Amino acid sequence: MADGRRHIGVAERRARLALRHRLAPSARATAPEEVADSLVALHGSDPATVYLAVAARLADPAKAVAATERALYEDRTLVRMHGMRHTVFVFPAALTAVVHASTGLAVAARERASLLKDMAGAGAPDAAWLAEVEAATLAALARRGQATAAELTADEPRLRERFVYAPGKSYEGVHTVSSRLLRVLGVEGKVVRGRPLGSWTSSRFRWAPAPEHPELDVAGAQSALLERWLRACGPATEADLKWWTGWRVTEVRRALAAIGAREVSLDEGTGHVAAGDEDPVEPSGEPWAALLPALDPTAMGWQGRDWYLDPELRPLLFDRSGNVGPTVWWDGRVVGGWAQRPDGEIVWRIPGGGVAREAEAAVAARAERLRAWLGTTRVTPRFRTPLERTLSA
């Protein structure tokens, strides 16, 4: 371009995605830790997403459940915790201190203040009382190693206390101290979700003490996280970075400057890549198909998605809150969606067609591979989307 910035077009962005997100056949991983490291984080709001996202990127998806459970609950090389945008993710253990300092501290302060405000408004006990309950709860969890909220309540009965949330409002409700306090402790990095009650699709988790990690400088942690993300997902616009991190735009700009990020030209305007990542990336020459789960980190990776998602598909694939459902990919772009029926069949649809027979055959093969891998397991996304509801009926 006239201003000297290199232009990165759609084809190159899709080539980077295929290789760095381990979706091209030659880029498949051998372990869940490799997948999480390549993507920076796996969405964990829906427990099944973690395993399905890993399986879609492993050379041998049959290893996904056992290997991911071992990484999460035995080796602790992966940790499920709150992160960007106050969302639950699974991170590489080595990244937990960076995530906590860069995104968790500010959210934690707001969460604790909100809890104390709600309790005070309901005439519940004060901060000193809550501090006693918190200390007793953490001590009980340390003794047990991991525990459900009910088990912790047996050890610390004050967790059963209830208070009215938003009295007089249309959304008025009753909260227990246990539900709100454990959430606050999770955001503060004092507890993490442990092994679930039930199978890998269960959303009923035990709690466990958070692994110890150093306290990092906030600005330094933000720079470290942004650089990791750019190397996995760059190029990206400022809007992408602000949305993904949940930071203020001033924080995004400060981190970009600190890591020496390079400006590039994108079809939608100015983008950024990490220093030293400006060299062209050529398509691998191996067309690929993938069936990615609801909330997959690739589908949810950017705020601006037109380069890999036709805007006409959005009403079919997203719910009203912006959560993506299961998606069908062909060679770097979303072409449709999929679902699992009650009998276990994997069904998919490419609305409007527009793909070659080669693509349809590759998608069908991935669908059959997914059906065989899931076996008797049934997966229903936590956030239902229009096309997924239609296909699964």
UniProtKB/TrEMBL annotation:
It comes from Streptomyces collinus (strain DSM 40733 / Tue 365). This is Winged helix DNA-binding domain-containing protein. InterPro entries: AlkZ-like (IPR009351). The chain crosses the membrane at residues 88-109. Keywords: Membrane, Transmembrane, Transmembrane helix. Pfam families: AlkZ-like. The lineage of its organism: Bacteria, Bacillati, Actinomycetota, Actinomycetes, Kitasatosporales.
